[in-house]
Amino acid sequence: MCYNNVLMLCRAIVIALLLFGRHAWASPCRSADIRFKPSGNLQIAVWVEDAQGNYIDTVYITRQTGYFGLANRPGSPQLKTAVRYPYGRRDMVLPVWAHHRNHSYRLVVMGGAKGNSVANCAAHGLSCGAGCCGGPCQCQDHDTDCDDTTIACHADVSSPEPFYCSPNGGQESVQNGVDVVSCASTFTGSKGAYDDNQISLYPPRADLTKFNGNDSADAKRFKNDNDLVAVSGATPLNGVLTPLRWYPPADGDYVLYIEASAESDFNLSHDHGFFPDTQHFWERGTKFLGQPSVVYRVPFSVGNEVDVATSGSYAGYSDWNGATGTLHAPDSTIDDTPGHGAGRLYNVSDANGTWRVKVSALSLCDTDAGVGDAGGNCEAPIEPQGLAAKPQSSGTSAEISFRVPSSGAAVDHFEVRYRADQIISDADFVTADPSSMAPPTPGGPGDAMALLLSGLRPDTKYYVAVRGVSACDRDSSVAVVPFTTTQQSFTVLHGCFVATAAFGTPLALEVGNLRKMRDRYLLTNPLGQLVTALYGALSPPLALAIASDARLRAAARSLIRPIATIARALP
Hints:
The protein is an alpha+beta fold. The protein is 18% helix and 26% strand. It has 9 helices and 27 strands. A 6-stranded mixed beta sheet has the order 10-3-2-12-13-15. It has a 4-stranded antiparallel beta sheet with strand order 11-1-20-14, with no helix packed on it. It has a 4-stranded antiparallel beta sheet with strand order 24-23-26-27, with no helix packed on it. Helix 6 (497-503) packs parallel to helix 8 and helix 7 (509-522) packs across helix 9 (550-569). The radius of gyration is 26 Å and the shape is globular.
């Protein structure tokens, strides 16, 4: 009887620890403080392995790769790039991390409800002449709706795009001193479908919440299949010292890795070209395959004593195309200048010398004795105070402001997430979109905090949620506020308003042919300029009506196709 009682008690303790999750620990509690100062616009993965090279944990990954599916989305990997480009799976972005982690997902390819390859799209009726941009065969004698080799002609497998911009380009600007990105116009694109015969080492996107009849059933599963949502975060700002915290599972020897990737970081040794679009008329964007990702490595020990370990140089670089997880030894093909190659992490000097990565393995859960110690004296902070959102006139950003709680446990850092049309709770906070800008470092009690949330859609209702996290990793309740972005003060519909509405995308070949006729034969003479100006003034209301009615779209296409055919024949 005594033995059974003890056994039941042990089981109860184990269950309680499991339910308590990350806020429970066995004494003593340890933590590792990680610091680095990145250059701008990087993709970054931070992970930990044991001394034998076994993968342990991913600490952090930038949101574009971890949350928005940059490396596992439709399109050939070497298609060109542009501001928030929608296509081209970048499986060369963080390959050392991906191969060391060795977690597989199904590969996302171009497609939708009617198929996920040229062959099965054709079997569903999307053959040349039917699915080829909705008109006569103009796409090299095959259907392109489910073709990974082109950015063009995916209308029958596309739906409104919540994050990425049209291949015709996004826009970069500076608001409140922060570089922000917005899409110049609304865009419909293929979200893709799984190819069950291929795998990827990267997760699919997790931001999709709305679908239409063109989307594949697979797209509705992407969010649940992405297991990196909780560790995905805003891309750190250029030159800002970035802190991260990791909790070791046990005492021992570990190795921290940071992999950093940058587009278009060219030098004489690394300028790897691109995959030409098979629909040459829609060759968009710029080449991007320059110097590969670089990796920094810091061994450290966790135990009763504080261990501060640093690294002032990079450990190696990846394959330029991400083919393997090989870490190539440093050599002269990689630059080491601020912001380029090995210089993607800047030098920092302090009492521990000059370094690019520093790990402080602590014998307590935090650096402040008595806040989170081995005895479990760890309190959650009070939720952020006075949360407010002020939409900006651009229509694509909002200034978020709040105050550090004036009482309660100290806040180590804040976390900010947002979502369109759906409120955010404590329970589902980590499933919402990570903020575009890293939250500021907390000041003293009552101090004001602010950041710019960018990349939003105009005239859309959003919820933004902020929570504070203590040094021993206890979360406050979330503070939540709704806001609606303003209408954009500019709208770019690529000049062909009615045709774009009729065919659902500015990438339709008919739209391209009409645009060519306008540029070559109308804008080059006074009468043509007058006709173009009248069209620009009168057609937007008609385009809005057509875009919202399937019958009007079909009628408009039947009227436009003969004109587009004539335009195509013009020299």
